[in-house]
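Subject: sequence -> structure tokens, single chain

Hey, anyone have a minute? Need the predicted structure for the following. Not urgent.
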Amino acid sequence: MHAPKNPVAVPVKEKPKKPASEYEAPRFVLPESFYEKPVQQPEVEYVTVAGVRFKEGGKVYYFDPGQIEMSAGDFVIVETARGLEYGEAVYTDMSVSASQIVSPLKNVIRKATPEDDVHKKENDVKETEAFKVCEEMIEQHGLEMKLIEVECTFDNSKMLFYFTSEQRVDFRDLVKDLASVFRTRIELRQIGIRDEAKLIGGLGVCGRPVCCHTFLDDFGQVSIKMAKEQNLSLNTSKISGTCGRLMCCLRFEHETYEEEIRKTPKIDSLVRTDDGDGVVVETVPLQGLVKVQLSQSPDAAPKVYKRDDVKLIGYVKKESKSQPETEPEQ
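Reply:
Had a minute. Here:
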């Protein structure tokens, strides 16, 4: 092929250059899977319940109020696993989480009628008589057990006898004799010493009725550590209740003590005050006070400071308190 004669030059169009300030960094688009999606919290289901108590200071149980109109303090008839029972409504129309409910929820049958009140009083008389009869039979059989309380169900289908004993008791013959006298189902239950105090009641070392008999629904865990943190005497007679176990009231202020103790420098801590450095020899967590023995005046009495006015700088070695070793300040 021959090249064309007199070729025409075609000028190349150049794109106008942008000033350096107009250049942008490339944008990278991440996939949607890279971004964390908000977690949807499950909806909490609430149930309307009525709280009913069967004994003074006893546990409160949940029931379905249905269409029954009642107020706190009214006596009601409710359906339970052992039949109809007579109890007191502690609160009504209360919303609680469905997770706190043990299904199926039993129903409130009706408000107690005057006839129900009379029947309840008759059952109370039966319980008193049954207590005396059972005590006589226990003595006749020579059983090592202490009768605490007798309970008769509202529909008279069963009688429960609560007792304590330090050992296992063979009470089969006793059950037969009780059934022949009362002509109903008999059940004997052995309970612990704390349950005995809850049923009987009494006065605590504070002079007031024991908490478990008046308002405590259930027993909480109490440890000797709680008494130590509250700086109480570890004398058993001073921190034990009428049941012989640690007093339940040790738990009431435990969380407050834990919080205040965390804010307060411990004993044998090295602190810096406006009067110089010293060692903490005593603390009062609830008042937020510490007693400090100043290093520059070891023979003088310890001075009292507010815990916010001192700065922790270290700790004293327990092996040799005469030569304190400081830790680096934080």
